[in-house]
Amino acid sequence: MLDDFIVRATLAGLGIALATAPLGCFIVWRRMAYFGDATAHAAILGVALALAFSISIFATVLIVCVIMGSMVSKLSGTTFTVDTLLGVLAHGSLAFGLVAIAVLGSPQLDPMNYLVGDILSVSKDNLKVIWAGVAIVIGLVVWRWSALLTATLNQDLAFASRINPAQEQLILTLCMAIVVAVSIKIVGALLITAMLIIPAAAARPLSRTPEIMALIAVLIGIVSVFAGLRASYVYNTPTGPSIVCATVIAFVVANVVGSLRNAG
Amino acid sequence: MTLATATKLTVKIGNTTVLHNVDFSIEQGEILTVVGPNGSGKTTLLRALIGALRPASGKIWHKPGLNIGYVPQRLNINATLPITVNRFLSLPRKRKADDIAKALDNAGVSTLADHQMSQLSGGQFQRVLLARALLEQPQLLILDEPTTGLDQPGSAAMYQQIEQIRSNYNCAVLMVSHELHVVMSASDRVICLNGHVCCHGTPAVVASAPEYRALFGSGTQGALALYRHDHDHNHDHNHTEAAE
Question: Which of A171, A230, B39, B233 is most buried by its number of CB atoms within 10 A?
């Protein structure tokens, strides 16, 4: 069964949908929509460095993403707010990544591959790495759920309940880095950030509690992966962007349903 | 019995020294109010006390096993985060439905359990935060300007609720307030803060202290300083309206 490339692509997409949906909820709640972009762009810088020095892409991307995330946490709330910092880091790391590729001379590296990826080329080994990463991320999020949620609501409430918000922020940063590191080569930066933000945003009008929102986001992510792959197969459209299109359609439908329900 | 103390507490935010050599303590069952002008370090003192800020020097001491209920001044809940009052009260620890109902009742908002947090009015929100603090079974309840954004009847009702809670839960209350006239009737002890402790003691003692009058009014008596404050406020208010 795993010999079929469509099956492998589906499993890769499902894994990523499972991990990105709950993470994406936290990113939306914390108003850090650029965080996904910044991390994914930092990953391109990581890929360039890894190829230039012939070291593991996975390890380099993971480290670069963790450094980027830590910088955001350290610097935010000082002179700049989070959105400004993320804007600087997202575009900065993309630009430095592209410059690094040119200077260090990695002819086999086409940055476009890392923006849209190629989910149809997923190998069995890729699948193992993706699902191992997904398992770690889901484990971390479920384990820290209450603490993450409290720290997201208000830092001082967290302190008063003996929760350290900086530690919870670090866990989120680490989860993001893992998701990006395991999947950037396969699905690309565009799909990762889209899968973070859009299913979570689509789930919002249908949800009354944070847990329901995370579950609906997972469902929307899964349905979008199936729909996008199917459309890509039938209409011969690019696969990653087709999946993103499906999430956007889900977002529109959810908002229409949500406002009809409020009106009625 | 002493619940918490600060000894020679100095707190810096960035390079600015916000609190300098502050000594204070809070005793079982008392209502202690911190007053002071804007930027005098009132909120900083509370945040240092709950551990959200680390002292640059000096010490914070809690009675071992002290339960603190904390009500922050203002809490913005992002509307993208859907959460009912019920769920909010069960964070980070799961609470029994009975306990939640009792806490909501004690905070005077027993009917709001199924409402979305983002749709509450300012006063309702403040009371839900109070209910959440009560679920800790606090020996010390800390409130940062609990009446921000409330009108006069609203804040009077809030202070009555706080006194009621003090006797129901037999806890100490430490709060920050701007409303000097209310402070005097509702507190056992007052600390007047302006980066350091200017003066402290019973409301009557503080009201007649020269340091207090220097901060809050130029009248010859503390009571007059309070009266003048109230009077000035109403006068300015009417005046502005007339001008518009």
Answer: A171
For residue B190, give the H/E element and its range: strand B189-193
Residue type, B25: S
- The Cα of B124 is separated from the nearest Cα of chain A by a number of Å equal to 17
Instruction: Determine the Cα–Cα distance for residues A224 and B76; give it in Å rounded to an integer.
Output: 32
In the A/B pair of chains, how many CB contacts fall below 8 A?
69
Instruction: List the domain range (segments joined by +) for residue A21.
Output: 5-189
Instruction: Tell me, yes or no, whether A31 lies in a domain.
Output: yes
Distance from A207 to chain B by nearest Cα, in Å? 6
Q: What does DSSP assign to residue B116?
A: B
pLDDT in tens, A43-67: 888 888 888 888 888 889 889 888 8
A107: confidence class by pLDDT, cuts 50, 70, 90 = low
Cis omega (within 30 of 0) on the bond before A199? no
Q: Does A29 sit within 8 Å of B78, measured CB to CB?
A: yes
User: Tokens 């220097």, residue?
Assistant: B214
Contact between B21 and B58 under an 8 Å Cβ cutoff? The reply is: yes
Pick A146's closest partner by Cβ from B51, B91, B132.
B91
Would you say residue A88 lies in a domain?
yes
A151/A72 Cα distance (integer angstroms): 16
Q: With CA atoms as reference, report the closest residue to B216 among B183, B240, B189.
A: B183
A132 within some domain: yes
Phi, psi at residue B33, to the nearest 5°? -115, 135
Q: Cβ separation of A156 and B70 shorter than 8 Å?
A: yes
The residue ranges of every structural domain in chain B are 2-67+138-203, 75-136
Q: Which of A209, A211, A261 to mutate to test the interface with B (most CBs of B within 10 A)?
A: A209
**pLDDT for residue A230 is more than 90:** yes
The CATH number of whichever domain residue A157 belongs to comes to 1.10.3470.10
Of A170, A237, A210, the C-alpha closest to A24 is: A210
- What is the structure's pLDDT at A106? 60
- The reply to whether CATH 3.40.109.10 applies to domain B2-67+138-203 is no
> For residue B172, what is the enclosing H or E element?
strand B172-176
User: Closest residue of A to B78, CA-based?
Assistant: A29
**How far A150 CA sits from the closest chain B CA (Å)?**
6
**Which chain B residue lies closest to A158 (C-alpha atoms)?**
B92
Residue A2 has pLDDT above 80, yes or no: no
Domain count, chain A: 1
